[in-house]
Amino acid sequence: MKGSAIHRVLLIVSICAAWALISWAPIYKYLTHGKATAAMLLGILLIALGMHWLDRLNQQQRQISVGWFLLLFLMLTAAFAVLYPLSLKHTLNIGSDREDALRIELNAVHHHQYPYDARTFLGNPPTPLPGAMLLATPFFALGHIAWQNFFWLALFFIFTIRFFRHRATALFFLAVFLLLAPANLSDFTSGGDYLTNFFYLAIAIALFIQSLDRPSHTWIPAALFLGVTLSSRIVYAVILIPLLALTLQRTSRARTIALFVVVPIAAAAVTLPIFAPHACTHLLQQLGQNAGKLRYIPTVLHPRWTLPLLAVVVAFTTFFVRMNLQRLFLTFSITSFVMLAPFVFTVALHSEKLRYNFSYLGICALSFALWALSRYERLSIGTPQHISLAS
Question: What contacts 24+ positions apart, CB below 8 Å, involve 19-22?
């Protein structure tokens, strides 16, 4: 019992730390030092108290009403309605160009031009890969790319309800790391696709894992969808390693081979035509443009190669443990942190302009919180056993 209590405390501390990591920068940017410190301490206290309440509620084996999720969705919608127009006017700050990056890419494709020659209104080269472009195309056709955020958010709500054993845990996760995390809320309400990429990747992975013991008419579409989502941002490629470890543990080698042929073929089919006629050269150039973000890390460390290599080494450890969906998200949180945190922290130390750019770590926090909160609720006494995405 003592070990379980210590485990709970460690999980509470880790969730508070994950929230603080992605929240302190925007809070200190817009508030005075004293008010920001007070806001941070209050946020951590409320999260800790909320997790204590969550534990008590889950022990009672009660499921909360779906209406609470509808209320949260409406609150996020209201925040978008207020903040999105302001982000377009750059009233609060210089603004995010993530939606603009997708817009100029899709405009270029629509006019049969190479999409990565253009620049956003901030002068940055667009970074979304062709998978993100393809999934945003229906909303581009409707004239509002930002609307894709609501579509994938709604599906992500369903994913979290299925992922966790208790609806209360799902609601807590969504409220803390979407509504109450300023960096994540800012990306969502500015029409950015950074979190949306994570939403549909998480959904694709869950569908893929669920399809492992299903007929081919189920697992082939799941593998194709996963391949498309992997072609949204290069940071997600490393998730194939723990996913391979999990697949080998769940199904036959023959099906594993088939699945891991379909997934990269789907990713390549979406990605390479955009970079034609010199697909490999253009793809490497596109991926290499992120190297500038590593400029404050000593070149002797060769961070462009050592950071992905370290992430791959971490990912390969999954072949030595029993894998499930929760551990897959834990692995991704670690590997993505390995690749993203060094440039986030070094840029913050050296550049006043980019000191508050901690939103890049939002996907690390989301992925880690999925694992940590699923572990936390499993420590509750009398947790009912039922089939879920996390099983």
Answer: 19/43, 19/44, 19/47, 19/176, 19/177, 19/180, 19/181, 19/365, 20/44, 21/358, 21/361, 21/365, 22/181, 22/183, 22/184, 22/358, 22/359, 22/361, 22/362, 22/365
The domain segmentation of the chain, as residue ranges, is 2-378
Cβ proximity of 202 and 233 under 8 Å: no
Q: Give the 3-state secondary structure of residue 113.
A: coil
DSSP 45: H
Indicate if the alpha-carbon torsion angle 342, 122, 124, 267 is positive or negative.
positive
Q: What is the pTM of this model?
A: 0.92
Token pair 């030092």 is found at: 33
DSSP label of 176: I
Peptide bond into 277 cis (omega under 30): yes
> Which one-letter DSSP state was computed for residue 351?
-
Q: What is the dihedral of CA 10, 13, 17, 23, to 10 degrees?
A: 150
Q: Torsion over CA of 220, 221, 227 and 233, rounded to 10 degrees? A: -160
pLDDT 10s digits, 218-235 = 899 999 999 999 999 999
Q: How far apart are CA 114 and CA 276, in angstroms?
A: 9
Our CA angle for 226, 322, 225, nearest 5°, is: 5
- The answer, yes or no, to whether the previous bond of 273 is cis (omega within 30 of 0) is no
Round to whole Å and give the CA distance between 152 and 380: 30
Q: Phi, psi (5° rounding) for residue 323?
A: -95, 145
Whose structure tokens read 């930002």?
Answer: 146
pLDDT tens-place string over residues 67-126 = 999 999 999 999 999 988 887 775 545 556 788 889 998 998 888 888 888 888 777 788
Residue-wise pLDDT tens digits, 100-109: 889 998 998 8
Spatial separation of the C-alpha atoms in residues 118 and 108, rounded to whole Å: 8
Distance of CA 137 to the CA centre of its chain: 20
Nearest to 84 by CA among 8, 185, 175, 9: 185
